[in-house]
């Protein structure tokens, strides 16, 4: 059975444990904290073994790590933030 989970992603990068085969479906800031807190939501089968996924956030105009895959974009005025996953 699939469910939706969420995990926090930090500016310096995050190792997120997700069940094998998890599919990230959304990236956004949540709440009104300063600095903002960022999360990804993902569909998963919680019965699967977990694996480490490496995610990071960058601002517009910043360098993207080679081999990274785009996850999503969110706006926290006046900034726009982008989440990427580093693929091995």
Distinctive features:
88 residues; four-stranded antiparallel sheet; globular
Structural description of this entry:
The chain has strands spanning 3-9, 14-19, 23-30, 37-44, 50-59, 68-76, 79-86. It is globular. It has no helices and 7 strands. It has one domain (3-86). The model has no long low-confidence stretch (mean pLDDT 94). It has a 4-stranded antiparallel beta sheet, with no helix packed on it. Strands 1-4-3 form a 3-stranded antiparallel beta sheet, with no helix packed on it. It is mainly beta and 88 residues long.
**Strand order, biggest sheet?**
2-5-7-6
Mean of pLDDT? 94
Q: pLDDT under 50 segments (min length 5)?
A: none
Estimate percent helicity: under 10%
For the record, the count of structural domains works out to 1
What structural category do the secondary elements indicate? Answer: mainly beta
Q: How can the largest sheet be summarized? A: 4 strands, antiparallel
Order of helices and strands: EEEEEEE
How many individual helices? 0
Task: Calculate Rg over CA atoms.
Answer: 13 Å
Estimate the strand proportion.
over 45%
Shape: globular
Total strands: the figure is 7
End-to-end separation in angstroms reads 28 Å
Ordered list of secondary-structure elements with their pairings:
Layout: E1 3-9, E2 14-19, E3 23-30, E4 37-44, E5 50-59, E6 68-76, E7 79-86
What is the structure about, briefly put?
The protein is mainly β and 88 residues long. The chain is built from no helices and 7 strands. The termini are far apart.
């Amino acid at each position: 059975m699939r469910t939706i989970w969420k995990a926090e992603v930090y500016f310096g990068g995050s190792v997120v444990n997700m069940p094998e085969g998890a599919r990230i479906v959304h990236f956004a800031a949540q709440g009104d904290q300063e600095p903002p807190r960022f999360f990804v939501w993902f569909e998963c089968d919680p019965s699967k073994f977990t694996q480490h996924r490496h995610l990071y956030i960058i601002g517009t105009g910043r360098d993207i790590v080679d081999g990274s895959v785009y996850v999503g974009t969110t706006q926290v005025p006046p900034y726009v933030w982008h989440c990427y996953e580093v693929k091995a």
